[in-house]
Write a structure and sequence with these properties.
Rossmann fold, Fumarate Reductase Iron-sulfur Protein, Chain B, domain 2, 5-stranded parallel sheet, 4-stranded parallel sheet, 13 strands
Length: about 425
C-alpha cells in the first residue's frame, strides 16, 4: 500500500512546556490544510448587491437542501449555490440563477436566514441589466411591457371571457361615472386569458352574485400585477405596473381589494406600498369567502362526494402565512372526503411556477429529472385523491399538463376551489 504522507507539519527539536521536555515526535503539529484558497470574485459580487448580503452568511449546514423542491428533482439549493460561488462560479451567467422558484422553504429552515427571496431577484436584476436573460423569459417580459400581460394579448381581450356570459358583472372601465363598489376584484392574467382560468373566473362571478357581493372589475384597465416580473429582476417593469394598477385602485372607489392570484396578493400587500406609498386593504379570494362561510354553507346544496387533496400555493402559504382560509372553504363543501398530502402547509411542495418558473419550463427541463408539478401530481395520486384542489391561477394549467405527462389522465382532476363551490351552489348544472 502506498505511503501517503502529509508533509506540512512543524516539529520542534527542543520543546519544553511548563518545565517538561516534550522534544521528539509527539510535539509534531500539522499545519491546517488550505480550505480558503478560492476565487471569491463572484461571491463578493453577489454579497455586494442590495439584497444579496445574506448569501455570505451561509455556514453550509445544508438544512436547505432537504427542503428545496428543485433539489428534489435535481441538484440545487442555497448551500450548493454558496459552494459553487465559493469555487468561482459566475452565477450571473449560469442556469442556476433561474432555477430557484423563490418558494421560501429554504428560508423557513435556515438558521442563518440566508434569504433567496432577496438574493435571487437582486442577482437576476444585474443579469437583466447585463442582457443575460433566457430567451423564453425575455419573450414574456416583452409581452408584459408591450401588452400588460405575459400572453401578449390585447388589453381589449381581457374581458373576452364575459362574452355569452349572462351573469351581471360591473366593468368599471366602461362606466362614465362609476359608482363606488364594496369589492374591487382584480381578476388576474390567467383568469382573464387562459381557457381554464376563464372557467374559474366565471365561477367566481356566480359565487359573488349568489352571495350578493357588490363588486366590480377593472376590465381593460387592469394590467399584470408584476410580482413575477419583480422576482426575475425586471424592477423597472414592476414599478411601471405598480404605478399603473395603483392608479386604477385610486380611481375606482372601493372598500376592499379581492384578488384571484396569490402572487397579486403578495405584490399588492407587500411591494406595491413601496412604489405607490399607499396601503391596500387586500384579500385573497379564499380569505374573503372564508369570512362568509355561514352564508356559503347555506347556499351549497349539491354534494361533492370525491376524494380531494389541496396544494398550498407558496405565495399564499409560506410567504404570507395563510393556510386556514382555503381549508375552511374545502371543509365546508358537502360530502367531500378531504385528505392532506404528505407535504402540506408550512412544508408544502412547490408547483414550479413561482419566481418566473411559469415561463422557464424549457430551461428547467434541461437541469431536472422531472417538472416540480409532475412530482406533486404523483404525490396527490399516492394519497388516493381523485381531485387536486388549487387556488392559484398558475396551478390549474401546470398540474393538468403534469397529469397528462405522468400518464394519470382520467385518474386525477385539477380544479380551483372556486369551481367546486360554484358546482355545489349551482346544483351541478353549471349555469
Amino acid at each position: 500500500m502506498a505511503d501517503h504522507k502529509y508533509e506540512k507539519w512543524i516539529q520542534k527539536d527542543d520543546a519544553i512546556i511548563d518545565g517538561i521536555d516534550v522534544s521528539g515526535e509527539w510535539n509534531k503539529m500539522y499545519e491546517p490544510r488550505e480550505i480558503m484558497n478560492y476565487d471569491l470574485t463572484y461571491m463578493d459580487k453577489i454579497t455586494d448587491l442590495d439584497g444579496g448580503e445574506s448569501m455570505g452568511w451561509c455556514y453550509q449546514c445544508a438544512q436547505c437542501i432537504g427542503v428545496c423542491p428543485v433539489d428534489n428533482v435535481g441538484s440545487y439549493g442555497p448551500r450548493k449555490i454558496y459552494r459553487n460561488l465559493q469555487t468561482g462560479q459566475n452565477l450571473f451567467e449560469h442556469p442556476d440563477l433561474w432555477l430557484c422558484t423563490t418558494c421560501s422553504n429554504c428560508l423557513r429552515v435556515c438558521p442563518k436566514e440566508v434569504d433567496m427571496m432577496k438574493i435571487m431577484p437582486a442577482a437576476r436584476e444585474q443579469a437583466v441589466l447585463d442582457g443575460n436573460v433566457p430567451a423564453e423569459l425575455q419573450d414574456m417580459l416583452q409581452n408584459v411591457a408591450e401588452y400588460g400581460n405575459p400572453m401578449g394579448e390585447s388589453a381589449r381581450k381581457r374581458v373576452r371571457w364575459l362574452r355569452k356570459f349572462d351573469e351581471p358583472v360591473r366593468d368599471l372601465s366602461k362606466e362614465e361615472n362609476p359608482q363606488p363598489v364594496d369589492v374591487l376584484w382584480y381578476v388576474s392574467d390567467y383568469f382573464s386569458f387562459h381557457g381554464r382560468g376563464n372557467d374559474a373566473a366565471k365561477s367566481m362571478v356566480r359565487v359573488f352574485n349568489r352571495l350578493g357581493v357588490d363588486f366590480g372589475i377593472l376590465g381593460k384597465e387592469e394590467k399584470c400585477d408584476g410580482d413575477s416580473q419583480r422576482l426575475v429582476g425586471e424592477t423597472g417593469l414592476f414599478e411601471e405596473l405598480a404605478e399603473h394598477n395603483g392608479a386604477q385602485f385610486e380611481k375606482y372607489e372601493h372598500n376592499k381589494l379581492v384578488v384571484s392570484d396569490p402572487h397579486a396578493y403578495n405584490a399588492f400587500k407587500n411591494f406595491y406600498p413601496k412604489v405607490t406609498n399607499k396601503e391596500y386593504n387586500v384579500q385573497h379570494y379564499t380569505q374573503f369567502l372564508a369570512e362568509q362561510i355561514d352564508d356559503l354553507t347555506t347556499l351549497m346544496k349539491q354534494p361533492y362526494p370525491k376524494k380531494v387533496t389541496f396544494h398550498d400555493p407558496c405565495y399564499l402559504g409560506r410567504h404570507n402565512g395563510e393556510y386556514n382560509a382555503p381549508r375552511t372553504l374545502i371543509n365546508a363543501i358537502p360530502g367531500i372526503d378531504f385528505m392532506e398530502m404528505f407535504r402540506c402547509k408550512e412544508q408544502g411542495y412547490c408547483c414550479g411556477g413561482g419566481g418566473g418558473g411559469m415561463w422557464l419550463d424549457g430551461l428547467v427541463a434541461d437541469h431536472t429529472s422531472e417538472r416540480l408539478s409532475e412530482n406533486r401530481v404523483k404525490e396527490a395520486i399516492e394519497v388516493g385523491a381523485e381531485v387536486l384542489a388549487v387556488c392559484c391561477p398558475y396551478e390549474v394549467s401546470r398540474f393538468e399538463d403534469a397529469v397528462k405527462s405522468t400518464n394519470n389522465d382520467g385518474k386525477l382532476e385539477v380544479i380551483d376551489i372556486i369551481e367546486i363551490l360554484d358546482y355545489c351552489i349551482d346544483n351541478g348544472d353549471g349555469s
